[in-house]
Structure formats: structure tokens, C-alpha cells
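Task card 7
Instruction: Convert sequence to C-alpha cells.
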Amino acid sequence: MSPVEKKSRARSPQELYDEIRELLIKTKPKLKDGTTKDETVTGDLHKIASLAQTFTEQRLKSSKKSQLSDFLDQEGVSLWNASGVVRLGSALDSRVVVAALRLAGFRLMEAGLEPKPDTEALLHILQIASKTGATLSELGHNDTASSVLACAAKVIFSLFMLIVVGINFLSKYEEALRNIDDPSGTNQQARACVTAVYLSTRMEAAWREGNEGLAAFMADKVTENDGRLVLLSNHDRETLATKLLDIGKSLLRSCYQDSKLAPEENKANEAIRWMQKAFAVIEHLDCASNAELAELKRSVLRSLARGYFLSSSQDPENLIRAETALEEVIATINPSVDNVSSEYQQLRWMKLAVIKRRKAGDTVLLQALQAIIDNLTYSESNLTDVLQELRTLSQYHQLVTSVTQYCLHRALQCSWSTDAVERLLISLIFHCSKDDKHDRAIQDLHASFKELSDVEFELLKAPATACITLLWQYGDRHYHAGRWKEAADWFSCGTHSIFTSLGPVSSSRCFRKAALAHLKRKDYAHAGSIIRRCPDTEATTQYVIFLIAVYQGLEDEAMISIRNMVHAVDFDRKMILLACRLAHDLDMKNLLLNVLKALLETLNFRENVGNVTEAMTLVRCIIRLIVKLLGEPAADLDRLVAALLHHLKIAVTIAESCEQPAILARDVSWLWRTAYNCAIQACSDWEDREDQISEIFDAARRLLELYTLHATVDVDQAVYIYIVNASFASASGRVMSFRRLRSQTESIESEKYHDLFNEINQSLQRISKVLREEKLSQEDLPRLESSLQILRVFMVEAACHLSDWTTVLATIEEASRSDRDSLETYEAFADALWEDKNCPIHGRYLFSTSQSSSYQPNLVLFTALEATLHACLARGHFSLEKFSRWLRAICIILLTRATGADRSKAIGYVDQAIAVLEEHGDARDGGDLLYPLDERQWLLSTAYNTGLECLHASMVDEAKRWFECSTIICRFVPDGRQRAEKVGKIRWKIRPHGIPQQISTTYSDLLARYPTR
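Output:
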């Protein structure tokens, strides 16, 4: 007891009354003008309560009612009523004032109570006491009271003291009420109501004090007496149930301590008991016309369900009870008003949590989730809740798929935002990627894609990109794991029409990825059918086509795809490099050749051409590969030789155009050697390809010349030999080709004759230049001279075709001036002129009358034959048959002119023939004479006839020489002796005038026609 109370007891009732009255006079005006925030008000009210309590104690000791009691009772009623006005405020200071007013009012009414009150008075004072105690208890357990009323610390301290007092005086009046007899039952309901209020107040106060045992005891007392509960009004029962529910909820909240996820099972069970009591109080009440009661009942059931759920680990049956409670609540939902409210959505979520914990089947879970989705008001957070919940159900794979598809269907049906559809679609793709049954996952995806397509839903670019990225990611995952079919299916999903916002580039990429996956599993037909759905103008598509063709062994198709790839807009040289490597690894030389060609084309004909060394290296690779292919059996010579020539020309062009030729020295060296060796080999392996071989020699020669021109060190003499050989071989090959062409064709354009002539002439000039510059050693000169002589033969042959007789004569004379002329050269000259029917021999001049020349037309053949004969006689080794023919031709030409000098020259050649006959006249080849008999006969008849002609012309000396020759020739023909006798006698007798004295009869007859001199 406080010192104030001790001091009060020492005073008389009148003094107490007077002090109470003074305080009331001071306090009541403050209550009327709204100055209740003044802390002196609560302090004065507490003093009034304390004085009134002291007054009551003194009055109870005297057991007499004082006249002052009525006044105190009236003032108590007044203060109590004033608390109702102040109660309208919700601030903490108003509640403190209300508590002080009620406490003071109660103490004053208590002081004015009769010593032996009747039932109504007791009911009234107990009810007042209950409400006062409840108010004080409630305020005492408010943790924020101290901080809000820091300025009124004394008041708060007094309040806590009054709480204990309030509880104690309740029991006194409750016991007095219990002892009152009421045989008629008039006050039965009032007594039940007051008792229930009293017990519930004590229960609540004990709970707030932390005395859980006393609170439970009071709860049992107030709920176990069914007879008393029946007498209570609906409002009182609602109030009681609310208090019981509040205590149960507070126990549920305390089940989680320090953010621990594991509930405290014992507290959960205790909470259930409190909520069961609350439900029992209102279970049988009619809620149809009382919305507040219906809401209370639903609140109790919700709390019960939570309690059952938390305690289900100890008692699994509580899960069924929780589900039952939730179903009962859900059954009370008005579909037209409450169905989609957040509160009732929570009920459905609670039910889902319950059935998840009791491990219900997929069907039950699906129904619960569908109920949530059906009543879902779309928002980003709500959709997130659904998706997060689905993640917790990953073990129910098909269930999650069905729910996601259902939610997607709902989003389309209810016109949710496009963001919702996109999120659901991405979630579905992500979930299906984890399905261990691949075919089912792909089927589920296609079903959802079809639904989107049916409603003409088109994804925007960003979400479509996200979906495609996921599809590629999962496809790549299968691809790298060697699951080719699965990878192809994932890639194919990206080709669906719902992704059209990304354009054809995306679908083409998906098709290509799918085709590559089928290619890996060697399903070439499927891969080919897929890649054909891509535009063929894309380089990447052509590359995939190339791969499919390569693995099928279809080189022609692979080559076509390479050509298409190079000319595509999005071409990248890396593709060609990859194709090149693949062709090399598979040893597909023909394909590799075409790939290298395409790569070279990108270097030479595209922008950003690579450097010269790269181009030359590539040309070397191509030429090396062509040479290898040429060496294989059944090689396609037409194609390969053309390719070889083409790339040799490219090599020459690159080398000639290079600004720094020194960097290509090694390449040029390798190239000329390769070209030269290839041409040498071709001479023995290739038939009827002289022109192409000549072109290869030409390329080798040009590369050799570049090599010598830009060499950084002294060039070996052998290089010049190769230049001579290449130039000579090139010209020779063209001559051989031309000869073959002449044998096959009657008419040849003059242009070709000129080209051949120029080629031979250029070759002659090159070799002559090497000779003049003395680039070769003396040992190599015979080879060079031999090449020159053969080229002169070719020159004569070409000039004959062009009727360029001046060149023919100049060439023959040049050959004759050579130190190393050969018989074969002159033989060739003679043969060429002899066979040329256009060679003039009948008195026409070589040039037109406007040109001056001393050459006669027959001098062309004559010069050739003469040089030939001189060479034959000089070397002493020749063909007697050819010698006889050539001599005959010379003699015919000389005798045709009919001049003394020509006849003199002719008889000189006849003498040469006689000398040959004397040396080789008996030589035979088998049975035939090497010097033909017909030529001998011609010599004999020509000498004899020419002698006669000279004799007729009175050129006796010439005639004598011709007759002498004829006589000698007779020795080398059959019946020579008889012929000699006809020509003249063995002895010749020369008369003074030069006429023979002994001649044959024929000769005498001939001489008789001419007078002697």
C-alpha cells in the first residue's frame, strides 16, 4: 500500500469526502473543456480513486452507510459516463485518462454501495469492476505505453499498481454474487452474463500478466458451463470468443522464435485448445444475419487451420482437421463478392500448404492450384507467388507442367498482360528442360506454342529473345552431351511461328542448329530436309549444306555449296577455312581443291583482300594439291590441267604485281620448280596436250625470269639452263600441236600461223639473249646451240606457212653462220621447203614490184638445199637417199636458170655426186642400194642431155665436161659399159679445134651437124 493510502486511512470519512470533493471540483471542468492531455488530470483521478478506496475501507469497518455515500456514488457514475466520451479518442493519452476515469468512477461507486447490496447492485458493480479491470489490464500490457507517456511516469507506475488492485476486488464481488439466492431465476441471465464477463476479464488479465495457468483455468470455467453459455447473448458470446481467439493467436505467433522456421509444437497445441474453445462458444450461433459473427467464425476456423498445420508433425491427423477447417471456411465464401479477395486467396494457399504436407496426389494438388489460379487477380506479385510455389513442387514434374499450362491458358482467356504470358512461357520452357522424358517435354512445349499461335499471340522481341536463348541453351547442352536427337528437337522449337518477331534470321539459325544435330547422328536425310527450309542465300546455311554433302560423299553438291557460300552477303572467310580443314581431314582432294579456290577468290576479288604472302601461300597449296591429283589414276585431266594453268597465271600475276618481290622469293622458287617438273612429267604422261604443256613451261619460264630478276643473291647458272629449256620446250610443244592440228584440219586461220611464228621468234630471242650475255658455261653451249638450231627449223616451217620467204632465207643464212650447225638442221630446212607446195620455183619474185630485192624465188629452196649439201659433205655422215634427192633438186634449179654460172655450179654438184658414188656407190641396205638407182639414172641422163644442149649451143668445153661426167656415171648404173660406149669411146682424142677424134657413132652423128672451128 502506498504512503498516500496510509495517510488517507488516518483521516476521517468526512476529511476524505472533503478532499475527494475538492479534487472533483478541480478535475471535472478540465474534462469538459477537453484538457485531458494534462497529466494532472490522471494524477488527480488516481488520487480520487485512492481516497475513495480508503473511504470504502473505513465504511466497511463501521458497517454503516454514510450520508456521504450517495454523493460519492453519483460522482462515480458521472466519472464513468465521462470515460465514455473520452473513449472516442484512440491516442494513448486518452486511453490512460479513460482508465483513470473508470478506476475513479468505480471506486466512488464502490464507496457509495450499500453494506449489503442487493442482486442488481452487485451485478452492476461487478460489471463495472470487470470493465475497469479489463481496461487497466489492457493498458498495462501495452508495451508502448511507457514510451508515449514518458512525461507521466508517476501515472503509469500508479496504473500498474491499480491493475493488481482491480483484479483482487473482482473476486470479492463475484463471491458475493454467487452467495445470493435467486429461487425464481429472475436474475439468472444477468448473473450468467456478469459472471462470464468477470471470468473472461480475469482470464484476459491473467494472460496479460503472463499467468497462463490462471488464464487457462478461467477459460475453462467460463466455457465448461454450457448452461451459463446458453444464457449469454450473441454479443457476449462473440466477445468471449474473440478473447479466446486472441489468446490462441498470440500463442500461434509465439510458435516462431527468433525467426526460426521450426514451430514449437507444444505452443501450437495449446493455441489449438484456446481456439477450439472459441469455436465452441459460437459454433451453434446463426451467422446468416450477422456478418460480424460470420467473420468471427471464419477467423476462428482460419486460426484453427493454422494451428492444426503447425502441430501436424506431432499429430499427422491434424492435417486432415486443418483441411476440413479450411474447406468449411471456403464453403462460406460468396462467389459473387468474396471469391477473389486476398483474404480468401490466402485460404486456398493454406489449403495447398496443408495438402502438400500430407503428400496428397497430383490430382488433389492440381485441383488446389487450379482453384488458386481461377480466383487469381492478376498482378506481378500474385503471379510471382504462383511461380515460386511451383518451384517447390519440382518433384511433381508433370503436375507443375499442367499447372503452368493451365495458368498460361487462364492468362490468355482473361486477357492478362503480355508480361504475364511471357513470364509463364519462359517458366514453362525452363521447367520442361528438366523433364527426364524428353518426348513429353517437347510435346508439352509444342502444345503451349500451339495455344499461343491459335489465339494469334506474338511475343515481343525481348521475351522472344529470352525464350530462344533458353531453347538454344538447352539444345546446346544436349548437343555437347552427345544427345543429338534431343538437341535437334530443342532447336526446332525455336522455329515456331510465335517467334516471328525475331525475323527469319532466328528461325534460320534454329534450322541450322537442328540440321547439325541430325548430321551428328548421321541422319543425313533428316538434316537435309531441315536445312532446305532455310533461305539458300545465307552463307551459314550453305556451310551446313556443305557439311551434309561432305559426310554423304556428295562432292559435287559440296562444291556447289562452296561457290554459293563465297558469293553470299554474310560470307565469312572462317567458313572456308573450316571447310578446308574438313576436306583435308577427310582426304577429299578434289573438294579441298575447290575449297582452296574459293578461298583464293575471297582474297583476290573481294574487299579487304589479304596480304600478298597469304595469297601466294594459298596458290602454292592449290598447285601442290593439283599436282597430287594429276598423279592419281583416272585423273580428270581436262579440269585439273585447266586449274593448274589458271593458278600458275595467278601466281605469276601476284609475283609481278608485288611491290616487295623479295618477300616472295621462296614462293617463286618453289613455284617455278613445281611447274617445270610438272611439265617435264606431262611430256611423257599426257597425250595430245602440247599446248597446255607449253603453257606450263611458259609459266615456269616467267617465274624463272622473275626469280632471276629479284633474287637477292647470285643466281646459279643452272637457272638460266632451265629458262632456255622452258622457253624451248614451250615453243616445241606449240609446233607439235600445230602440226597435229594441220593433220586434222585442212584450213587454219592465218592468225594462228602468226601466233606460232611469234612464239618461236620470241623463244629464239630469249635463248639468243642468254647466249649473248654469256650466262652459261662452255659445257652448256652445245645444248643451247642445239635448241637454237631446232627453233630455226620451226621458224622456217612457220615462215613457209606464212610465205615469209625473206625470214626463211635469213634463218637459213643465220644457221649457216653458226659455229655449231648440224646436218639435221639443214635436212629439216630442206624437208620443210621441199614439202611446202607454196614455195615458189617458177621465176616469180619474192616481193612485189614496188620492193627491191635481188633474190629470185627459186633461191629459197636452193639456198636451203645448198646449205644442206655443204653440211652433208662437210660432216661425211648423211643419208645417201636424201643427198641424192637434195642434189637433184639443186641441179634442177641451177639448170632451169640456163646461165653459164649456174651450169658451171650444177656440174660442180654433179662432180660431188660422182665423188659420193665412187665412195659409197656399192653401199647397200639389205638388197637395196643406199644411193637410189633412179637418182643415178637421173644423174646420167641429166649430164648427157645437158652436154647435148651445150654442144648444140656451141659450148664445147661445157659439153665435154658434161659428157665426161655422164661417162663416169655410167659406171654406177646397170649396163653402164654399153651406155658408156654410146656416149663415147674409152679414149678421147681431142682435135686441134677441140673436137674428140674417137667418139661413138651417136656422138659422131651429133658432131657432123656442127662445123669445125
